[in-house]
Amino acid sequence: MIMKITTAAVIFMGSMMLMRADQLVESVQQALKDEGFYYGEVNGDMNANLTAAIRRYQIRNGLQVSGELNDETLRSLGIKSSGSSRPTTKPVSPTPAETAPAAPPVQPFSNAPQDQQVFPSTPMGPAS
Predict the structure, then answer these.
(1) Alpha-carbon distance 91 to 84, whole Å?
(2) 30 and 12 Cβ atoms separated by less than 8 Å
(3) N or C: more exposed end of the chain, with fewer CB within 10 A?
(4) Alpha-carbon torsion, ordered 51, 57, 61, 62, to 10 deg
(5) Among 79, 80, 52, which Cα is nearest to 66's?
(6) Burial of 23 (0-12, 13-18, 19+ CB in 10 A)
(7) pLDDT above 80: residue 123
(8) What is the pLDDT of residue 87?
(9) What's the confidence (pLDDT) of residue 80?
(10) Model confidence over 16-54: pLDDT tens digits?
(11) Rounded Cα gap, residues 109 and 99, in angstroms
């Protein structure tokens, strides 16, 4: 009797973990779809299309490219790894007044002739 209860508990816990994983994958699919990286069906299935979308997202966002749902990628997507869905609010981008002031233009050559256009030198070597 105790063995049956233990087995049932293990199966129940395993199905709960699987359900949570499916919800996590579904959240990732939806987030990537919203941002234009995933084109497949949002169904909670980890598949080749989702792996490719994760890789595209990682490349575009300067993350470690693995095609896997690591903590760095989940954080970047705004998804908690516990399987909860992503937050409904997105961070607000700063207004132009909040950004750093632009640096003055830099004059590369202080002694460059003002009446002529200056071109960068061409590399030496055989013509292609």
Answers:
(1) 18
(2) no
(3) C
(4) 30
(5) 52
(6) middle
(7) no
(8) 41
(9) 82
(10) 555 566 899 999 999 999 999 999 999 999 999 999 999
(11) 29
Instruction: Please report the DSSP string for 33-82 in residue order.
Output: HHTTS--S--SS---HHHHHHHHHHHHHTT----SS--HHHHHHHT--TT
What is d(CA 44, CA 34) in angstroms, rounded to the nearest whole number? 15
**Contact by Cβ (8 Å): 92, 79:** no
pLDDT of the residue at 103 = 59
Residue 93: both structure tokens together: 């981008």
Give the global pTM: 0.51
Provide the phi-psi class of 78: left if phi over 0, else alpha when psi is between -120 and 50, else beta: left
Map tokens 């293990």 to a residue: 10
Whether residue 12 is predicted with pLDDT greater than 80 in this model: the reply is no
Task: Compute the distance between CA of residue 64 and CA of residue 59 in angstroms, rounded to an integer.
Answer: 8
Query: Could you tell me what percent of the chain has a pLDDT over 70?
Result: 47
* Tokens found for residue 11: 């199966």
